[in-house]
Amino acid sequence: MPPNSSIIITGASGSLGAAIALQLTALYPQKYHLILAARNISSSHSEALSQKLTAANAPYTWERVDLASFASISSFTNRIQLGLERGQVRPLHGLVNSAAINNIPVSKTEDGFDTIYETNVLAPVLLTKKLAPLMKGGVVVNITTVAHELGEAGYFRERKSDLDKELGTELGLKDMLKKYGSSKLLLIMAGYSLQREDSFRDIKVISLDVGGMTGESRLAPKMPLVLKVSMHVLNFMRPLANMFNPATINPPEVPAKAIAEVLGDSEKAIGGGHYILDKVAESNAISRDEEKQTENMKEITSDLGKWVQ
Ligand SMILES: NC(=O)c1ccc[n+]([C@@H]2O[C@H](COP(=O)([O-])OP(=O)(O)OC[C@H]3O[C@@H](n4cnc5c(N)ncnc54)[C@H](OP(=O)(O)O)[C@@H]3O)[C@@H](O)[C@H]2O)c1
């Protein structure tokens, strides 16, 4: 029997994205057609995932999308819409916004925004806004991190006018974490706002903090040595560290299972909720401020401009 619905995973060629695809396949064999979105759909990473999914007889297709380009996102969502209209794409049940980027020298997209802001915030919101009208129920999962607590709601707005002057600047550890954390803070806030919109009445938008992850993440191409060492130490102490906080450090399969279960058991998922792995837990105070959320969504909508009309 063909799968009765489909799930889109961005960053599917990444460490977490691939693990989500494999967990969905293991927990719900044949239930979902996986639409694996990646910038490079013929990389060694996408090939490796394809081999595992093919061996498991999982239904999947790869779709090229560059999340640092509104035009590319728009072309992707148009292809999905056309596929749904023609019956070539199974009804859409889920969207997992897993793709992200961190710690690159300051750079600007073709749309004129900071690349981290566009990839980590504007892109998932644009995807969600374009795809939600095509979904009849289902779940949107935004992947977040505890680093949102280091973020500032006004981070990108305040630096927008200086972007050209700062192009090429390499950030130190503290600034890198603040910038990445700010992008995740804004994504969490956007999720809460979207959940309040009328068009999301039947759709659950959740944020899921994956905790620390081992594995081959390419998130920060130049990971500072101090972070690399900390990850190794934490990984070494994992059994002890996870006794105090089960999200301290895990292989990607652990958060991937929590994400797959939220998608597979969507009736139980808490719309507008923030999870740490499989438990509902509060995000930080700023992210929960409704006024700030609305202000943030207004800015995002203005930045997305014609692409959301
Ligand atoms: N790794 C951790 O410890 C950790 C901790 C907390 C939260 N997270 C979150 O978990 C999620 C996945 O992280 P990960 O560790 O799996 O990272 P990863 O292995 O580097 O995967 C990130 C994915 O995003 C894709 N991507 C980046 N820029 C893109 C663009 N412009 N267009 C399309 N795709 C793009 C990458 O594709 P390319 O192959 O083309 O670069 C890659 O597939 C992220 O949201 C991250 O913030 C990770």
Automatic annotation (TrEMBL):
Residues 288-301 have a biased composition (Basic and acidic residues). The chain crosses the membrane at residues 6-29. One of its GO terms (molecular function) is oxidoreductase activity. Residues 288-309 are annotated as: Disordered. It comes from the Eukaryota. Keywords: Membrane, Oxidoreductase, Transmembrane, Transmembrane helix. The keyword Oxidoreductase applies. Belongs to the short-chain dehydrogenases/reductases (SDR) family. This is NAD(P)-binding protein. The lineage of its organism: Eukaryota, Fungi, Dikarya, Ascomycota, Pezizomycotina.
